[in-house]
C-alpha cells in the first residue's frame, strides 16, 4: 500500500532517521517513555496477571532509531526476564542507529528486521504477546489497515498493543506552518533543501504565528533536522481526537484499556463546579476523555494501551495481599520523604496543574514500595506499628486512585 506520498515519507526517514539519537549517549542514559515501559505493559495490558517467568515476545512496529525497542529490551534484561523484542522498520538508516544503540548496551534480546508492518499478515514474524506502534499510524495511507495488521499479529488469547498518535488541539500551529511550507518548499524538492527553507521561515515567522504560541511542541527547536522535518515537513500527518482514536481502535477489533496518563483524561480534576460535575457524570468514559481533550488544549499526542475487544476484563488486583506494588521511575522512600505536609500533591502535565489528594498513610505506604514487598507484608509492618488493617486498605485504595491515575503506582507481574 504505497503511493507517491509514501515514497517521499520513506525518503524522509532515510535522510533524517527519527528521532535523532547518538549511540554514544547510551552510556549516559536510557530514553524512557510511554508506551512500552515494561511496568506499564505488565499493569495496563496484562492486569499484572501474566507471570514474569513467561517469555515475552514483543514487536516494535516502526521502530525508528530505537527508543521503544531499546527501552523494552533493556527493562527485560535488567529484570532478568526472558523474551525477545523484534524491531521492524523500513529505514536502513534508522536500523544502523538502533543496532548501534543495542550494541552499546550489549543487548542480545533484540532482533532487527527491515520491512513494513503492513506486510505482517502472512509473514512468519508473529505472533506477539505485545506490540508497540508509536508515531506510525498517523503517517500511513490507511491507518485502519495498519492497526488491523498489528491486531492480527497478536498471540491468540491475550496480549495488547501500545499506540501513540498525534492529537489535533495540542498541535495548534503545526498544520498552518505545514501549509506555508508546502508553498515555499514543495514536497518534490530534496529533503535538505526543504529543511533549509523551513529553518529560514521559522526565523522569519512573526510573533502572531500560532506555532510560536504553542510551548508544548519543541521538535523544531531541539530535535535537530530530523525533528524539524518530522514536525513541519512530513508529507503525511493525520491527527486523531479521542473519539476518532476510539473509532479506529474499535474498527480494528480492539478496545482501549487505558489512556496515558488517565488523570489527564478526567475532567473532574479541574472542573470543581458541582453543576458541571453533575453533567460530566452523565458522560461515558470516551465522552469524558473527549471533553478533557477539548478543555485542556495541550494534548499533542494520545497514548493508549489497547487489547482485543473480546478479551475478558481482568483489572489489576489491588485488593490482593499477594499483589506487589511498584513505582514507575520513582523511588518509594525518596517520594515518601518529599510528600507535601498538607496532603495534596501538586502535579503538572504540560502546564496543566492538577491537585492530587493523598490519604494520611501515603508516606508510610510509599516508603515500603520497593517492588518486592506485597501488600500483605506492608500491612503487617504497619500493623506492628499500631496501624489498623482496615485503615491500611482504606488509605491504599485512596492512594491508588491518585497515583495509578498518574501512571506512577502500578502492580508488578507475578513471579510465576
Automatic annotation (TrEMBL):
<dbReference type="InterPro" id="IPR029063">
    <property type="entry name" value="SAM-dependent_MTases_sf"/>
</dbReference>
<protein>
    <recommendedName>
        <fullName>Methyltransferase type 12 domain-containing protein</fullName>
    </recommendedName>
</protein>
<dbReference type="Pfam" id="PF08242">
    <property type="entry name" value="Methyltransf_12"/>
</dbReference>
<dbReference type="InterPro" id="IPR013217">
    <property type="entry name" value="Methyltransf_12"/>
</dbReference>
<feature type="domain" description="Methyltransferase type 12">
    <location>
        <begin position="61"/>
        <end position="158"/>
    </location>
</feature>
